[in-house]
Amino acid sequence: MAALAALRAPPVPKIFATMEEGPVPGGINPGEAWLESHGRSLGHFVDGTWLKPPGRTSLECQEASTGRTVAVVPAGDSSDVAVAVAAAAAAAEAWAGLGGPQRGQRLTRLAATLEGDSRGTMGALLALAGGRPLCRTLGADLDLGLRLLQAPAGGAQLGPPGLEGWTPVGVVAVVLGGPCSLPALLWKLGPLLAMGNTALVLSPPAAALPLLLLGELGGEGAALPPGVLNILAGPPGLCQALRAHPEVTSVTFLGAPQEELQAVVWGSPCQGPRLGGPRGGRVVVVVLDSADLDSAAAAIAATAAAPPALFPGGGCVVLAQDAVLAALERRLRARLGGLRVGDPLDPRTEVGPLGPGTPPPEEVVQEAREEGAQVFQAPLPPLPEGGHRFYPPTLISGVAPTSRCLREPAPGPLLVLLPVRGPTEAVAVASALPQTAAAAVWAQDITVALDTADRLPQGLVWLNSLDLLDPSGGCAGGAADTDLDEALREFGCPPWEQPPKADEPLSPAVTVDDPGDPELAQAVAAARGAAPRWGRLPGASRARVLRGAAAALAGGHGTPKDGDSGDTDGSLQRALLRWAARVERAGGAVQEVPGGRALVTRRPLGVLGVAWGWPRPLALQLLLLPALALGNAVVVVAPPGGGGAAQRLRKALVAAGLPGGALTVISGNSRGSGSRLARQHPDGLWICGGDADCEWASAVSVPRVWGVPVGVLGGPGQDHPPGAEQELELRCTRPHCLWLPGGGP
DSSP alpha helices (H): ranges in 43-139? Predict the structure, then answer.
């Protein structure tokens, strides 16, 4: 009782009556203590030590909830970038030379350091600077971040299958352009370091404090050698200084919207640095008439309060079947009204302030009101001085299908409720919503639930649960879904690919005067119509079409022309039969994950554009086969005389049962064909040859872009090099993960 009195706790009967959490013992915030230990004036963390350039302008790091300045960092400039790139380049050879097992041990040591005494400091800094509630930054977020670091560490120790002979790409820059969670950053840093690369992270001051702590922890206990992980804080646009450093072979952007990327990216898929774009978006929840509405409302409200850590800023759209719409809305209002809004450093807080640089969704909410929608907003409690960054938990219902709140993701604790007549309409609406990262289906009828989940296009789907993430179950949602295998390959160089030389120009001079291309637009539209019919067929059905085409070619149907020498050595027939066998055996895996099990499979991308610029007609056919075999619809732009072989293949496939529009070959100038295809917004884009190359600014809107290395196809008359077929399979497909509840801790 004395302890309760010291904590100024309410009487015991009141505690049992209200079931509220008690007060937390006082003490200095560990994040504030770490800042005090550095005099609240930090530097960059470069080459294993603090870099504080003299006479440099300082940038303020502010508390997310009040705007109070808690520390300052120097404003990084091009000279700091040069120092950091030099340090990373100097450390690259020794780090790569350690070998996978030793690198895995170092990363495991870093994860252990982060999980130990520094856990409270990291969680407090994430809540202080980012505004995410401490109950998440200390709990689920940090646990997920550790798994995203430990999984690639384990892959490096075991030697990932299929990556034999792969080498690091070199120096990788990670550019934070907006709100970014620690798990999202570690999902990049873990794989790139495990593959033997060194890293340079450019951060705005709003996100710099946790990252600087991470850099410091990397140096403790010799977890990472000096120069392997370098952190720079600086103003927007600092990434432009990377252009002067061709040693930077890969650049990944996190947290930046697409329109901002188009202004800052450089290089191209075939020349200059590789480019990784941001992921994320909103969550779509489908609630069917057999759902447990209480558990669904509780999970949806919790997701609105603190969205999933890997895509934290997109809001949530709820599609409820008509029969349960009113009952679900009542429960959601009650749940949203009961959320605790307040100081993110209070362990009892469920809703913190909006993230730094995140605009409040007031315009979106006001437009919905003007359109006649009903808007429910929970009242805000008394907030700390300067707490203007808080936004009340909000529910918008009765919206029109064309409303802005459905067209655009809105940040903050915002739910949009939309009625649907049944599962089929729910799938159609969820498929049409832009910028969705993941989906969930709530239903007690397991047959209907599984069928609905299988038809949803999102790469990550939960069944009767929300916000379960793990690298073994496919954890990055959005347009560019990524599993662990792809995350590692993103930062590796296969033996058939030659890395760009340091003195090569970063960007080809490619300009396209006429953006209009009716023939190409018509071909892409036809491919979009054919893609679902072809991609949803079972693998055995697609294999039957490939074998039929092989039989037709063996019978001599079709006359070689347009520079096509024909399949004189039978290599095309052998490739058709080989891919038919591979697609028949394609399957998935069941992974044990927190809270249940995950069914992990791979699905076709959809519409794939191929810009062909190489002079080998037969090679084009061999490149198209895996894309078609795995269920994609393909549009090819080839130079005059270079598409005859592909046309001959198309005729044989159509005669064997390939849907019309699933393969279109357009003859045209290959120069700039990549840009023309990118403007049609396909689901994937392959650039084959320098003339077909396009600048990243044109291709950044395409979810998956690949500058195809000529070596992946082998030489004339040769088979694919070892591992190349697996690479082609991964490039043709994307992971799909269905989380099934139960059977796990």
Answer: 78-97, 100-115, 119-130, 134-137
